[in-house]
Structures are given as C-alpha cells and as structure tokens.
C-alpha cells in the first residue's frame, strides 16, 4: 500500500449466541438479499450453554481461503458465506475511503482462514446457522475494523442470523426497501429486563432427516395461502402484542402467544404443497403435556415453541423449572445409559404432588426425550 505499511497477519476470535423466535420468520420476498415477508421477534439465549466460536485470520502467506466447521474442512465457496465476506470487505473499503485513521490497515486482498465450532451438539437441532453466521460476520468485522450496524450483513448468511447479533429480546423488521437497507434487527429489551425467564430445550430421539428452512419456506411462499394471510394480517398485530407482553413481563400473555405463533407456523407447513412435517408424534406429545400442566395449574406456566425440527423449546420462569423438569422426567423416563439427563444450568429437586402426577403424567414414553438443556 502506498498509504501505510500493511500488517502481514491478523487474527481475531468471536462468539455468538443462538436465538429462538417467538414470532416466527418463514418466507422471503427476495431470496438473494434474504428479505422476509414478515417481521419476526426472538429471544437470544445465554452463551454459557449455547454458542458458536469463530476464529478468522488473514495473512499475506495464505494461498487460498479456507474454512473449518467443527474441525472438518468445509466448502468456503458457499454463496452465502461469500456474500458475507464481500459485504464486510465493502464496508471496510468504504470506511477506509472516509478516513485514514487506521495506521496499519489489513490488506483486503489477503486470503483468509476461518475456523468455527459450536459448544453444543448439532443433534440439538438448534438453528446453528443463526449463531454461525452472526459469529462469522462479527469475526470478519473485527478483523477488518468495521463497526456499527452489522445485522444487515449477518442476514445475508441466514435470515435468523441478523437477530443473533443482539442480546435480549430482538425484533427483525421486515423493512420496505427493495435493497434491504431497512431490513434490520433491533433490540426490543435487554436480557436484564426479564431475569427470571428460563429456557428448556427438550432434545428428542429419532431421525434427523427433514426439509431445510431455506427450501421449506420457498415452497411455502409458492403454495400456501395461509402463509400469505399470516404475513399480511396476523403477524403485524401479534408483533405489537408480543412487544407489550415483553414490556410488561406478562408471562401468560407471552407464553400463549409464543405457542399460538409456533402452531401457526407449523400450520403453514401443513398448508404447503407438498406438505412439510417438522413436528413428530413426540413433539405433539410434549405439546399435550404442556397444556395439561398449564390446565392443572389454571394458568400458563410453560410455553413451547418448535422450529424446523421436532425438538421442543420450552419457555418458563425460574420458579417453575424444577417442577416441570420432574414432570418431563416422569413422562419420558430416561434410559439408564449413564448420559446426563439434565444439562446446562443447575435444576433443583422437586417432588410432584399426587394430583399433579395423576392429571399431567398420563402415558409415559421411556427414553423418548434424550436430554434436557437448561439455559436462560
Ligand atoms: C423456523 O434463518 O434458517 O427457525 O434465511 O433461509 O437461512 P434462511 O432461513 P433460517 O430460518 C429460520 C426459520 C425458523 C424461524 C425463525 O427462526 O424465525
């Protein structure tokens, strides 16, 4: 460079969280820019239990771009990864054009090496692409000294990744512009706003084969009249309502709406042609269990939500965790294979009253839930 001496090597490491939508994103109006047909709202999960860690390095001595996912080399040419890389470099170029404060800029022409890993098994079926792309974009941005709004870039990796750029309660606004400049994530409330909120991921046993989100939502957009109705008429009202429940820390309102929205998302999957089935018998069993538990207590104490797979994510408050975990343990007696049944944050002991057992634990299915991950 004629401007300043360039560094020969730079390396950064970042982490990023998983997020779970309570108003679901399903359907794009632009496949290339990843612009959604409706806004969505999610809860970002704590990184102690679920996170992606990515190290990105750029060097004068690298001869090609390379990528490793959980220790295995993977295709660096993936179009979405390339889109993120291109966008971060574009922002870096723009920033450098504006000021010369960076004494030793990293050459944008150096090849890069990226290594990324999750602290949770892929079998957990948790949207690892959201944490993965959020982490990739954070690492690249730090590497090139880019700051500011980056959800727009992460969105180019996976729609839901834009929401993992922020903590707490996050809204992804669909935006109106065709270029997507207003399709961004915003924090609705920080994590400190509702410290009692807890999350239980019920990892179910069984097959992993399913339709991916990208292909599934495309077929839904093409064929489901219910999805169109949802995006136009249902989601706008639900978003406003959900934000109010969060603002007021109204768990019953929050939980009921989260369950309804998950159910409507899966209804649009059934309305897709050919239909898509993400829920299985066990998912439905868990849904029924949650409703029996709430009915027994006479109020909404637990709420389920499901994404593009059969694992249940349960929202509840700290004072209900021990009792509900015991209900799950009795309903799905764990196989005595030495595996830890409850993982993550500690769960206290609870003994279930006789009436609760009789009313809620109806037909136990041994071994059906592999383990529970407790997080917040
Ligand atoms: C069901 O973000 O994985 O989890 O944008 O095509 O990469 P692409 O899809 P992705 O979709 C997530 C869908 C969902 C709902 C949600 O997280 O809002």
SSE arrangement, N to C: EEEEEEEEHEHHEEEHHHHEEHEHE
Q: Which ligands accompany this protein? A: ligand DP6
Rounded to the nearest angstrom, the radius of gyration is 22 Å
Mean pLDDT level: 93
Largest sheet: 5 strands, mixed
What can be said about this structure in brief?
This protein is α+β, with helices and mostly antiparallel strands. The chain is built from nine helices and 16 strands. Its EC number is 4.1.1.33.
Structural description of this entry:
By secondary structure, the chain is α+β, with helices and mostly antiparallel strands. The protein has two domains: 9-189, 2-Layer Sandwich (Ribosomal Protein S5, domain 2); 197-375, Alpha-Beta Plaits (2-Layer Sandwich). The chain is 35% helix and 23% strand. The chain is built from nine helices and 16 strands. The protein has helices spanning 79-98, 128-144, 151-154, 213-223, 225-247, 251-271, 281-297, 321-331, 354-360, and strands at residues 9-17, 19-23, 28-30, 35-36, 40-44, 51-59, 66-69, 72-74, 111-118, 169-172, 185-189, 197-204, 302-305, 312-317, 342-344, 369-375. The strands form four sheets. Strands 1-6-9-7-8 form a five-stranded mixed beta sheet. Strands 13-14-12-16-15 form a five-stranded mixed beta sheet. Strands 2-5-10-11 form a four-stranded antiparallel beta sheet. A hairpin with a 6-residue loop joins strand 13 (302-305) and strand 14 (312-317). The mean pLDDT is 93. It binds ligand DP6. Ligand DP6 is lined by residues 21, 24-26, 34, 40, 127, 129, 158-160, 213-214, 307-308. Ligand DP6 binds next to helix 4.
